[in-house]
Amino acid sequence: MRRIIWFLFVGLSSSLSAFSQSGEWLFIDTSFGAATYARIELKFNGEEITGKFGALDVVGTMRGGRVELETRRVDGTVVTKRSGTVSGAEMKGEGTRDTLPLTWTARRIIDKPAVPRTHRFEPKEFQRYFSSTIPPVLTIFPSDSVESWSVDAGGTDAKGVRRSAGGNPLTGPFYVEGAVPGDTLAVRFTRIRLNRNTAFSGSRVTASALNSGYFAQQQNVQGFNSDWTLDVPAGVARLTKPTDKLKNYEVPLRPMLGCVGVAPQQELSLLAGYLGNFGGNMDFNQLVEGATVYLPVFQPGALLFVGDGHAAQGDGELTGNALETSMDWTFTVDVIRGLNIPNPRLENADYWMASGIANSLPEAVQAATTNLSRFLEEQYKLNANEIGIVLGTAIRYNIGELVDPLVHVVASIEKRSLSRIGK
Amino acid sequence: MRRIIWFLFVGLSSSLSAFSQSGEWLFIDTSFGAATYARIELKFNGEEITGKFGALDVVGTMRGGRVELETRRVDGTVVTKRSGTVSGAEMKGEGTRDTLPLTWTARRIIDKPAVPRTHRFEPKEFQRYFSSTIPPVLTIFPSDSVESWSVDAGGTDAKGVRRSAGGNPLTGPFYVEGAVPGDTLAVRFTRIRLNRNTAFSGSRVTASALNSGYFAQQQNVQGFNSDWTLDVPAGVARLTKPTDKLKNYEVPLRPMLGCVGVAPQQELSLLAGYLGNFGGNMDFNQLVEGATVYLPVFQPGALLFVGDGHAAQGDGELTGNALETSMDWTFTVDVIRGLNIPNPRLENADYWMASGIANSLPEAVQAATTNLSRFLEEQYKLNANEIGIVLGTAIRYNIGELVDPLVHVVASIEKRSLSRIGK
Amino acid sequence: MRRIIWFLFVGLSSSLSAFSQSGEWLFIDTSFGAATYARIELKFNGEEITGKFGALDVVGTMRGGRVELETRRVDGTVVTKRSGTVSGAEMKGEGTRDTLPLTWTARRIIDKPAVPRTHRFEPKEFQRYFSSTIPPVLTIFPSDSVESWSVDAGGTDAKGVRRSAGGNPLTGPFYVEGAVPGDTLAVRFTRIRLNRNTAFSGSRVTASALNSGYFAQQQNVQGFNSDWTLDVPAGVARLTKPTDKLKNYEVPLRPMLGCVGVAPQQELSLLAGYLGNFGGNMDFNQLVEGATVYLPVFQPGALLFVGDGHAAQGDGELTGNALETSMDWTFTVDVIRGLNIPNPRLENADYWMASGIANSLPEAVQAATTNLSRFLEEQYKLNANEIGIVLGTAIRYNIGELVDPLVHVVASIEKRSLSRIGK
Amino acid sequence: MRRIIWFLFVGLSSSLSAFSQSGEWLFIDTSFGAATYARIELKFNGEEITGKFGALDVVGTMRGGRVELETRRVDGTVVTKRSGTVSGAEMKGEGTRDTLPLTWTARRIIDKPAVPRTHRFEPKEFQRYFSSTIPPVLTIFPSDSVESWSVDAGGTDAKGVRRSAGGNPLTGPFYVEGAVPGDTLAVRFTRIRLNRNTAFSGSRVTASALNSGYFAQQQNVQGFNSDWTLDVPAGVARLTKPTDKLKNYEVPLRPMLGCVGVAPQQELSLLAGYLGNFGGNMDFNQLVEGATVYLPVFQPGALLFVGDGHAAQGDGELTGNALETSMDWTFTVDVIRGLNIPNPRLENADYWMASGIANSLPEAVQAATTNLSRFLEEQYKLNANEIGIVLGTAIRYNIGELVDPLVHVVASIEKRSLSRIGK
Question: What is the pTM of this model?
């Protein structure tokens, strides 16, 4: 494991001046270079330790700085055995899972403060990868908010200053204390606002959205200018140097974030233009102020990245670049423990939306429909035929984007339709 | 050519009691069993005939019941030569196109009446194919309206009487005098209304819209009932025998027509469940009262078929059957001469919509985007980059259906956006 | 039903001078315009009729030219009831299936002659559709052979004479007495030979097989000549007027048939360029002399069409036209009763090949793999994991064609691999 | 840039005891955290430095440990300006590209030894990512060979000892001195041999290769055993515990490598199960002893990884795992300077093969055909129509695999066909 396992140390010194060993611990087992994670509730009672990990019992002892721990099935058979040392809020040692050897570390998860905080975060550098190998810039707790901003897709900030190489440079990552793989992170954007009056876009429809014969006969206009002026008071964008045909053309401003994602599985480093079950460069034009994004957690702390503001975007992000601009935003996070979603979901006042992010349009439609079906199964306990009745009558599809490394399709259902289904 | 060429004779006896030979003629050339069509304006002046066919000149003579006709390029070279007999509103004979032999017939196209008529049509039998080999049930003129009805997808009428075998039985075809291949037929539905209080639907999401692993684990509920009661006063549909979870579930009624199509090219006979550039079983939930459907014409008279009413339908028609029911409807037709569209288009008060009907989702998206691009090129003379700007900011995609032999995707743009583009 | 139901009358007068009413009968039920077919073995014993239709019993009586027939389930419940008249080898009348009314006709299937015959057939006209609405040109029996020829894809014969409009004009259809829907037709090509020394091809790779960016930048060479000279003694084709680069370029001759198909379901008429589960324009370069093609039967008599000879073809038929030429061929037919295959199959000395003909490459691969899996299930009774072991180690895929209305992929397995599997 | 830039230091101390500053230098420019690379031939003549970088001229001076360098276009305009220090074989400093600031480092590329060497390499640890962030295990020169081995896909070696976590653990990476982005690495496998007599495989055909309806009805056999015994003398594999049906089933041994890849672009870390234009987990059953693999170079030194031996594999690797086993292998590398290929290529005695690695089958076929078209363009200077003639008659497609994150299709052409094309 090449990366620094920061999630063991983050914030501990300041926050744990007083703590109880009893409570939730984050365990990291490493076997042949691959890590697995668990959040385990432990109770320290004299020398005795007890706890629960899913259906497994945890039993152990702590004596003179040494700790012994086992997880056991209901029938008493042992799954993991760990021996090691304990020092305050930290433990580490060696052990076995079934017959395989492992090394392990653990630390006490810091309890969430009584009152949520709002963090004002000024980014200094920007990330060009979604990856668990990047140290977090800030540790926050469930219910906390972060108020910050992002550069545009090319790396330029609100004042027009170049701050990063291009490719959707990201603000973050933010470490959400207590989140572990198997949870879902909820990120509610209470504010997404423009912070400058310029944007840039592409001006050719991507080849993948046109018949190749038609694409081949299209003529590019040399020197065509696709810079935009954002008239925030009027609520519209206009081409800065329009052609005659487009001199009155206006686009309603609808600020959104193209990139909201957590660190993907294991030690993957994916470009900031990439997307997947971890979210990322989703480029979906409903990710506007007021929306909540739900993302599956793959790493301790989730590691949230945010960037790629668009002043407005049509379906599919057909020209590769929407109206790219820097953005101010504020979000509030929460962790839904034990909710395992196959792909991101979104929610706004009127709709529940389920993403399908996949290699191709047919697979993205399948993934989105499956994600929404699982939502109905999970939240309403509907059977296959009830799901058929509801989706057959009420599903709506949106095409998020067609131009990134994977395709993004969204299947939605109105909350009004859901309101008439028995729970 | 196996079919009866009814478009030569339809309505002639009654309508042509008095007519002038000068005017538009429908020509049908047949060469090695394949037919081609042309609408040619001819002027009879004594023995001399003159006319225009696109960029070609038509010159000829008529003497004692014999006719000789040539089409020539601007440089005087001859394209077709025809000799034959003429008798009132009809001509026929033999000839050549370049060096290939052909036989030909022609008849005077009947001039459109001064005042449009509304035809009340009572269907007696129903068609199970889109095909030019089916004789028309009624001849109408541009601007005429037809008021009629269709059975449901299974062949049952408003009174619950079985009238046809299943598979989307169709009302029609209607022959629109004057339409020829290369034109576009505009069909405006001024009325689409429910005529009974029952419908039926499927209750399982099609395998093609779900991950195969998820589909494989779904359990079908034996005996699940998916009959619907249509509460027209309340404007909603409810399951007739709902499960407990769905006992309050309601679907807003939004009557639409699944099938609107013309006869496809040549002598193809395609099942009424098929769709393509000729329209057909498009299953698009915006084809409601007030919408105008534009269809390319492949046969003289266009030969319009209508059927497959749905009381309501989600995107994609995921369960294979929407809320299938019989339907009353009225449409007005028009012919847009010389407008050649690659795939159907629709228009309502707020949107222009361009269909992409193709083998797969990626190809359907390409076809829809190309269709909308061509619309902007054709109606607004936009260049490739201007099209990029407009579609990149204003396109919306809908998935019509995913369950028929081809996939239907629709690319739309708001008329409000178009209103700010220079013509 | 618009078509003439020739399969009731074909060949009867000559062949049935002496016959027994006991034996196989072809039944055609028509209900609301849709036909269904059955081959039923009947035994006439005085006034009593008995028989079997699948798991159903047939019982009835014949008295004074009147016939009454019922099919019944094992539990005695009645499925169909028929009353009518009988006259020699024909019967007809009315009846019901469950509660639905039907009309029916039946005729005695002519018994296969003791000795197979070889028919020499000289085509006079050529078909441009695969369709059951085209009357057969010849009736043959299982084990019979037909020796005939086909024009090239453009309609030109061995002597260079234009005989038909283009679009893969077909020879046939041939009616195979006794074949009914649910059977499989086996067509073994014992001879596929060139009959002239010229061919033509395309010279541009289809857009659908190239990245659209690459396709858009390719420049077409005006006036490029893609006519071929077939040097049969040398076994190669050469460009007739090659460019300098290709002046020594040779293609090994490997004569094949692009089109082998039966009439598709119901009254569909599909262009001769179309393909599907009925075979058709399959354009697979292993359909050479010595191959046997297996096709599912959708119509009484199967109605076999043959055409579209290629002197040679690369995988995918990338230029739309292979080396198109007229062809001499001989085939022997057989009917495999009750074998229901989902898509065509082929066999040669070394391989079993299972076609997947579908809308897109992913679907065609799925269809081909499923077809080969079903073959292993059906012929070797393998379970899902045994199929996995065999296909995981021994499957080979070929891309038949990428340029026709549907895509054709073939999954193959060597007979050598199969020889080591227990039956 | 988080990674250690080892390619600056690798092997320098030992190999550069004596060297000339004149010669090839590797330059690394870093701007806003993103690196670009160049190999530049420099000539040191007193205080004067001159050189060439593509079409650009390099001019500069070296005085007292300080260096100034500019690259200029033919018209004299300056592209980059660099100032810094020089110390033996290393330089570094700051500068600008157009107006953007950059930092730079450079080192003298070590000249290739006169006589190629064969390195025997014993891997100690195994990589689970394709990434430039992993330090190389060995530096080699063009024409050198490496003799080594890899564990099986699960991490087990020739002696059955578990050596790594699973997921195709890789041997390497090997740094090839002198290779820079824009080159092609040629890796010729002179030896690929089994080193143990066991393998394991999957036993279910992947859902993506079957119709979902068929997949859903397949029943998995609990406890089915898919371990294999490799009988190297007999040249076949047999199931270790076969079912009755498969007790004589044999698979011819054909040892291949599933994973051969270089480090992908930038600082991406992709799982060892991933593939792309960098090669990787290509799972193509023609990558056997005797084959040469061509890979585009994205990083200085290319950074070659090798692993995932298969004793045999059907097309598509349908069960997800082929016959997975550890493997001994030897390769010889070469660098083709300035050859820029869009996707990997392979060569054996009879064929040239061009990979298409893409999101879906249609895109993979497009990429493969484009790759082979570019090969013909590049090596034979064929125009679009000549390419059409050659591919239309001689292309063959193989499906490499269908089960990994991207699809792999290969387009091939026989060398025999190529031998008759003018160069």
Answer: 0.96
